[in-house]
Amino acid sequence: MALTGVIRPGHVQLRVLDLGAALTHYRDVLGLIETGRDAQGRIYLKAWDEHDHHSVVLREADEAGMDFMGFRVDSPATLEKLAGDLKASGLATDMQWIAAGEHLRTGKRFRFTVPTGHAIELFAEKEKVGNGMPYENPEVYPDDLKGMAPSRFDHCLLYGDDLDGTMKLFTEVLGFELAESVVAGPERMHIAAFLTCSTKPHDIAFIRHPEKNKFHHASFLLDNWGEVLKAADIITKKRVSLDIGPTRHGITRGETIYFFDPSGNRNEVFSGGYIYYPDKPPLVWTDDELGRAIFYHDRKLNENFLSVVT
Amino acid sequence: MALTGVIRPGHVQLRVLDLGAALTHYRDVLGLIETGRDAQGRIYLKAWDEHDHHSVVLREADEAGMDFMGFRVDSPATLEKLAGDLKASGLATDMQWIAAGEHLRTGKRFRFTVPTGHAIELFAEKEKVGNGMPYENPEVYPDDLKGMAPSRFDHCLLYGDDLDGTMKLFTEVLGFELAESVVAGPERMHIAAFLTCSTKPHDIAFIRHPEKNKFHHASFLLDNWGEVLKAADIITKKRVSLDIGPTRHGITRGETIYFFDPSGNRNEVFSGGYIYYPDKPPLVWTDDELGRAIFYHDRKLNENFLSVVT
Amino acid sequence: MALTGVIRPGHVQLRVLDLGAALTHYRDVLGLIETGRDAQGRIYLKAWDEHDHHSVVLREADEAGMDFMGFRVDSPATLEKLAGDLKASGLATDMQWIAAGEHLRTGKRFRFTVPTGHAIELFAEKEKVGNGMPYENPEVYPDDLKGMAPSRFDHCLLYGDDLDGTMKLFTEVLGFELAESVVAGPERMHIAAFLTCSTKPHDIAFIRHPEKNKFHHASFLLDNWGEVLKAADIITKKRVSLDIGPTRHGITRGETIYFFDPSGNRNEVFSGGYIYYPDKPPLVWTDDELGRAIFYHDRKLNENFLSVVT
Amino acid sequence: MALTGVIRPGHVQLRVLDLGAALTHYRDVLGLIETGRDAQGRIYLKAWDEHDHHSVVLREADEAGMDFMGFRVDSPATLEKLAGDLKASGLATDMQWIAAGEHLRTGKRFRFTVPTGHAIELFAEKEKVGNGMPYENPEVYPDDLKGMAPSRFDHCLLYGDDLDGTMKLFTEVLGFELAESVVAGPERMHIAAFLTCSTKPHDIAFIRHPEKNKFHHASFLLDNWGEVLKAADIITKKRVSLDIGPTRHGITRGETIYFFDPSGNRNEVFSGGYIYYPDKPPLVWTDDELGRAIFYHDRKLNENFLSVVT
């Protein structure tokens, strides 16, 4: 197979202040599908076109934020190999195996902390529950989708301090590539990195920030700009807190809107963006063009975007 | 890197009856950009968001059709390895190395014939000429795009007899996967195969057909369904011969329109389609649902689609 | 007020062979809202953004087709005046007043037959039931819309013999204008007329046809081309009989798809089209360009479009 | 004819600080078509689907803003009648006839000042120059459109003090209707009025403001939300000053983006909005919902929108 190693973002576990309010948001507003609850009370959800059992896990806690983000790898052998590589790299800390079944219908996961302070997981096995349509003679989408109805969990943007270390870990150990980056000052220090393990412009992204382990947003994929408008309308009809949008990113070219879940965790839904290939020259943005890089139309950052994280 | 081996369709060389008329079509109607002409008189073109020197080569000849389709591999080492694998496979015939430079700005290519009779090439080196924008602080698309202005050459659909042999070659030797297929009769014989080497629903496709080495269409990527309408309008404004569309495919879910170049070679422009991952369960269509599989709205094939090939 | 006289198509009463199947189609597939049933068993429906009580009435009968189409006029005084003008014109036959209440929540209607054999009505009063949102601080559309969810009943296309007489009645008595027409032969005989009483490119249209009083289609308004695609997807998901589309009309420029209700009555949903003003020069199409006039992309008529009427 | 009296906004004359910079903006960025220059040096432009000679006139001056806005009436007789009605109304001041030919290819105009201080004109004759396509067998749009390429000049929003007087003049003398309004405080004083003379949600709008005769924006019509995105991209590519958008209005439901010409005059391009009929119940917004009324997604006004006028 041509896509190997780490193949995609597989899940994100989010802390929410009130599980009921969060479920209403992620199921009825965002439009994910609930697939299970575990003995700890965590709620599992998936986007409609994902085949795996879940991609979002909600955990009630006293403080919002991200517990961890997990990536699917192509095989158990790759999982073992990458666990070994991570141990050997000296770049990861707090490494541990999480037993199969700790997440519903999921095999064992290898969890580690990257230099920016975020917990990341790798896993090779999660039960396929399908996308609501048969594998023989399907329709093009299922009936009865709700809310914004994104087709997939797409990526996270995370804020943390040691951006260089995290970039090194993702590119040198996990096989990601730097599709785009933002550099600052005459030394062209990296202040943002957009990393891909596939043909998407990014599968995970990081922005340099004084604190470790902060969560900026989890992003979900829509079909097109018309669906971004529909999402914006839903945000108002449901009185969801809007951050910014609809607009376009310069980085990735994606069409986007940002908003907050009831606990203050930021979500994005977006569409578009180019196809990334490993021989594509990386794009670089300088900090004087950061506004246009992030919000292509406004050409300036809103204060929220830089400072509100969970 | 996560995407390795054969990474994408890199070029298609088409035979056209009149080079001037073909250039007008591919440059002004389809909206490709001319990047060169060689000593043989061949014209080289690229879609605007491709970085390689060319993806379409037009050669004047007495008969329309496809000379060959070429795939980019990730490295010269992979090119050598796959050439060896092809030789060892017993599935390819007419194998030869084409010298570097035979195509403008392109390294050496390994050409072979697959069991359906089509000439396929692999190459590892083609000069990057960029997408008309700087690599630092770019815009989201260049100015002065013309015609339908697809961003990329995406795939070809080819007709030929020994579908099983070609499927075997692409999946077992070149590392492609079968994303979708159509089967006929109680034996569920494959009559169509949609093969991917990436996260696209197909990078090449084949339909079983009594004759060897027939060309059905070359396809180019648009951003969205609104661009498909614009393409349809251009087809009429320029009095291009329409095959069918705008419509949607059941297979791949793509939004599409088909038309003919002045020599009778079929083109497609399309948008949409799902993201393919190697662990996605393959989709199968039965021949009684073939109409819906190909043209999701009409739910029947037009005669042209099955019989007109070059 | 600037728009006076006959102001819009207000309703169409359709004959259906099976009321239950028809209701499923018009409510769940097309997405109209049921607003009542009368003692005769007729079912009343409206599109979501209409404020009047109903715009479609379904009547079970042994033969499909249209009973009549009704237009709203601006006032009871105008209703009386136009009834008198019609009587004086010598162009209408079978004139009668239908008592208030014969249609639910509707005032008295003046019914007459036009030279092409169709029954047309005028009315001045129908109860306002609103569009599902308050008149103070509304949202932009209500929740829980179903199916294709057109916002309005827009127009009908009718087939009949004495096109000249009907054109004369609509333009000279009812104040319509001829926005576009199709002419045939060296005498440029009118074979199609697109008539407007507003700023829409047509509020009613007629095509010359040997038989009197035939119904071609009732049309409903969608927001945009993306909604036309969604309608096309629904047509297939619900296995509705498709006539043609998605495509564009040359006449009106509208983006369109045609399909049939379970009784064989044709429906259209469409979006777009220009703004008509009374000083806009009329457009004329010649019969050699009829294909492009009707189906701008195909540039030829399908046999169904010309021959299948109810 | 069903649409009579004042039928549409016909032109707006804008003051610009530098005629060359303004022409570049209105022709190459907005995408209007230059149709003439007069002896005073004024530049005349039209949107592509307008048939009249011009809809925008640029005049170089020391201060930006609007000289006047003109409405087309249905006939010379109506022009005379409305001039008389205005004189009799006691609501208009500074009334004068402007001679035919003072604007290129335009008949005589009746100019008057409304209570908010704005100069408004009526005219009945302006030469038809067409929309770049023949009246027989046209295409659906001409080739070689540039920039945002709106199809029509649509409306203006003006700021001034005596809103009640201006509303009275437009509704009681000129036959406009109040489609939507914003009211403030327990007395529900009108602070904004959206007035229509057609089936559009507004042909002119006013917001209460301490100063007389201020110009907020001139608005131009796009086909759809995808064109609004294209306009937003052009705004950035051409480094035009963005005000706000892309977003949606609660009032009118239109999809919109605002930006400034080089002199600081605000422009809008928008798509969508409902069809207005004279029997449609008027919509009222209260000032506590003003944010959502104006910017449906943000649900708050940006400071610019309320304070920056020319």
TrEMBL record, chains A, B, C, D:
It is an enzyme of class 1 (oxidoreductase). Homotetramer. InterPro entries: Catechol_2-3_dOase, Glyas_Bleomycin-R_OHBP_Dase, Glyas_Fos-R_dOase_dom, VOC_core, Xdiol_ring_cleave_dOase_1/2, XylE-like_N. Belongs to the extradiol ring-cleavage dioxygenase family. Its EC number is 1.13.11.2. Residues 8-125, 152-272 form the VOC domain. It holds the Pfam family Glyoxalase. Its cofactor is Fe(2+). Keywords: Aromatic hydrocarbons catabolism, Dioxygenase, Iron, Metal-binding, Oxidoreductase, Repeat. Gene3D superfamilies: 2,3-Dihydroxybiphenyl 1,2-Dioxygenase, domain 1. This is Metapyrocatechase. It comes from the Bacteria. It catalyses: catechol + O2 = (2Z,4E)-2-hydroxy-6-oxohexa-2,4-dienoate + H(+). One of its GO terms (molecular function) is ferrous iron binding.
